[in-house]
């Protein structure tokens, strides 16, 4: 810029000024000036980085002078620190575009990024360690500013799953360069590699020094259902849920939290597999020491229900000491379907100590032992032969269960329902809810069983009535009730049957009883044998037919004219006569004897 006023005051003419300039600037100087002007002109090309000087700021635009009377604009938002916008301050900008009216659009941020990339490439290579500040989260990971934005994948943030990686935003972290893509200006870094290398060095040292019984501090790094992983400074140790507390806990998070520093006891070292077992409860004395003295067998104690299972309820007697009330130890008489029917969580109960096992850390408790056992006096209250009125509570294939009194049940076996009638199921004689008089047959206090009988209410007919009424050789009538391949069952009177064996049906060979008789037929049969011990009656049909034939023969002889009679022949023994063993035991009817439950 030329100051005309100054020239006029000095009294210099333009010709004189031109002469003086020509003397000062030689041809060489002129050449240098022309070269510099050419460089300035070439520099003002879109995509190039140029130097400039801040002139001023208008609103959101910062005016930057580029030389040669050229000015451009930069958005104020591209300055990370607004205090950097100072008139006269030099800076580098990227010339992005020039419009037709001479306007120039500049970018400071892009220029900084290009220069930063050049510096990073110049100073660093793959494998180098760099520091930077996490700027923001993007898809798949984080952006870290190390002079230029670089990509930190989520998988490379930590050696464990880090959870919400946004918590690293704003933090300065140390990373290792994994890959540099100069073509696309991309750099991938890893924080995990740094941690792994540090841990490897620390792990070797820990494995060389660690021993069972040591106290070690660590940081809780992961919490699972089964326990806690603790970082000992290069090597993880497992603190199992069972080693967290002497007492009962449902989840490790009840006692510890992530990133918490805790001190544990080393309870196991596996150097070959690099595994460390830790314990927290082992820092205090086990409450199971001297447990037998504090809870002697037979003593009564009070505790709180802390857990209810299908098989019983756990009672906390003190912190770290629990006992089990098994479902079988809850009542002498009640049939309890589930412990929750009579006990509830948090309820205080008085119990009796039944057994203490210090090695297994188990205490067996009883609830019913606080009451009088009704079975201990059952044999005195219900001696054998006592007649009791009972109520049928349930029916099974082998008998009927009846209630003698609340809590005392008995069993009527199917064989004890009748002396003479055979039942396929107790339901043929009894119904649920029916009252029935019974006789006590046996009381087993140890097994809590009472055997009862209905038939014993009357005298056994096989003792006198049946053998006195039915005599071998006697002819009786009966109805066919059942056909089998070995014979026919004939009902002689209600609930009393005899067996007509297939060999006693006819003198002719009989292949099947159905060929001769059918169910419902009324027959005249002869009694062959009455066996009171095995409760069997043997019958014969063909012997009745023999008797009829003999009578016919006698009538015929009486009608013949008197003639000299020959001596009577010796009577002929017929097969199956009354002499000797008339029927094999295996072929006779069998009334089943009483069976055990």
Strand order of the largest sheet: 3-2-1-4-5
CATH architecture of the largest domain: Beta Barrel
Which fold does the CATH topology of the largest domain refer to?
OB fold (Dihydrolipoamide Acetyltransferase, E2P)
Shape: elongated
Structural class: alpha+beta
CATH top level label of the largest domain: Mainly Beta
Task: Give an account of the 3D structure.
With 597 residues, the protein is of the alpha+beta class. It has 6 domains: 4-111, Nucleic acid-binding proteins (OB fold (Dihydrolipoamide Acetyltransferase, E2P), Beta Barrel), CATH 2.40.50; 124-195, OB fold (Dihydrolipoamide Acetyltransferase, E2P) (Beta Barrel), CATH 2.40.50.140; 210-283, Nucleic acid-binding proteins (OB fold (Dihydrolipoamide Acetyltransferase, E2P), Beta Barrel), CATH 2.40.50; 297-370, OB fold (Dihydrolipoamide Acetyltransferase, E2P); 374-457, Nucleic acid-binding proteins (OB fold (Dihydrolipoamide Acetyltransferase, E2P), Beta Barrel), CATH 2.40.50; 460-555 and 581-597, OB fold (Dihydrolipoamide Acetyltransferase, E2P). 17% of the residues lie in helices and 36% in strands. It contains 9 helices and 30 strands. The protein has helices spanning 4-10, 14-24, 27-43, 108-123, 192-209, 291-294, 378-381, 465-469, 542-558; strands at 49-58, 61-67, 70-75, 90-98, 104-107, 129-138, 141-145, 149-153, 172-181, 186-190, 215-224, 227-231, 236-240, 261-270, 275-279, 300-308, 312-318, 321-326, 348-357, 362-366, 387-395, 399-405, 408-413, 435-444, 449-453, 475-483, 487-493, 496-501, 522-531, 536-540. The strands form 6 sheets. It has a 5-stranded antiparallel beta sheet. The chain has a 5-stranded antiparallel beta sheet with strand order 8-7-6-9-10. Strand 1 and strand 2 (61-67) form a beta hairpin. The longest helix has 18 residues, at 192-209. It is elongated. Mean pLDDT is 82; it is low at 37-42 and 569-597.
């Amino acid at each position: 810029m030329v100051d005309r006023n100054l020239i006029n005051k000095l009294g210099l003419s333009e010709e004189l000024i031109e002469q003086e300039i020509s003397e000062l600037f030689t041809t060489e100087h002129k050449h240098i000036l022309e070269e510099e002007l050419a460089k300035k002109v070439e520099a003002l090309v879109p995509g190039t980085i140029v130097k400039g000087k801040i002139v001023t700021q208008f609103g959101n635009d910062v005016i930057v002078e580029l030389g040669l009377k050229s000015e451009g604009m930069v958005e104020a938002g591209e300055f990370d620190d607004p205090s950097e916008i100072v008139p006269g301050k030099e800076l580098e900008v990227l010339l992005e575009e020039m419009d037709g009216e001479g306007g120039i659009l500049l970018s400071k941020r892009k220029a900084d990024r290009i220069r930063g990339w050049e510096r990073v490439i110049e100073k660093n290579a793959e494998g180098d360690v760099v520091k930077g500040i996490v700027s923001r989260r993007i898809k798949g990971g984080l952006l870290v500013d190390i002079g230029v934005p670089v990509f930190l994948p989520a998988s490379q943030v930590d050696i464990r799953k880090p959870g919400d990686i946004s918590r690293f935003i704003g933090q300065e972290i140390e990373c290792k360069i994994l890959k540099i893509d100069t073509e696309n200006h991309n750099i991938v870094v890893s924080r995990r590699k740094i941690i792994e290398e540090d841990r490897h060095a620390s792990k070797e040292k820990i494995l060389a020094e660690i021993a069972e019984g040591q106290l070690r501090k660590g940081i809780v790094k992961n919490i699972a259902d089964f326990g806690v992983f603790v970082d000992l400074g290069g090597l993880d140790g497992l603190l199992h849920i069972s080693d967290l507390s002497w007492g009962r806990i449902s989840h490790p998070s009840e006692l510890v939290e992530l990133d918490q520093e805790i001190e544990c006891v080393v309870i196991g070292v596996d150097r070959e597999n690099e595994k460390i077992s830790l314990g927290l409860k082992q820092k205090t004395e086990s409450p199971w020491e001297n447990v037998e003295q504090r809870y002697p067998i037979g003593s009564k104690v009070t505790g709180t229900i802390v857990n209810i299972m299908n098989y019983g309820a756990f009672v906390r007697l003190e912190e770290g000491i629990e006992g089990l009330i098994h479902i079988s130890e809850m009542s002498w008489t009640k049939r309890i379907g589930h412990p929750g029917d009579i006990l509830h969580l948090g309820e205080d109960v008085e119990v009796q100590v039944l057994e203490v096992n210090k090695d297994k850390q188990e205490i067996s408790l009883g609830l019913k032992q606080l009451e009088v056992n009704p079975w201990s006096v059952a044999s005195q209250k219900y001696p054998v032969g006592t007649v009791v009125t009972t109520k049928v509570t349930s029916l099974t294939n082998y008998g009927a269960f009846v209630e003698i009194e609340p809590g005392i049940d008995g069993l009527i076996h199917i064989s004890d329902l009748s002396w003479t009638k055979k039942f396929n199921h107790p339901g043929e004689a009894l119904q649920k809810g029916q009252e029935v008089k019974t006789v006590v047959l046996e009381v087993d206090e140890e097994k809590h069983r009472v055997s009862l009988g209905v038939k014993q209410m009357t005298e056994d007919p096989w003792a006198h009535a049946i053998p006195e009424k039915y005599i071998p050789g006697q002819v009786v009538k009966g109805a066919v009730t059942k056909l089998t391949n070995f014979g026919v069952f004939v009902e002689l009177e209600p609930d009393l049957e005899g067996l007509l064996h297939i060999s006693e049906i006819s003198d002719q060979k009989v292949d099947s009883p159905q060929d001769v008789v059918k169910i419902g037929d009324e027959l005249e049969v002869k009694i062959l044998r009455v066996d009171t011990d095995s409760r069997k009656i043997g019958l014969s049909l063909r012997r009745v037919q023999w008797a009829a034939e003999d009578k016919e023969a006698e009538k015929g002889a009486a009608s013949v004219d008197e003639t000299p009679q020959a001596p009577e022949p010796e009577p002929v023994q017929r097969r199956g006569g009354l002499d000797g063993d008339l029927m094999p035991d295996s072929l006779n009817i069998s009334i089943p004897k009483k069976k055990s439950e």
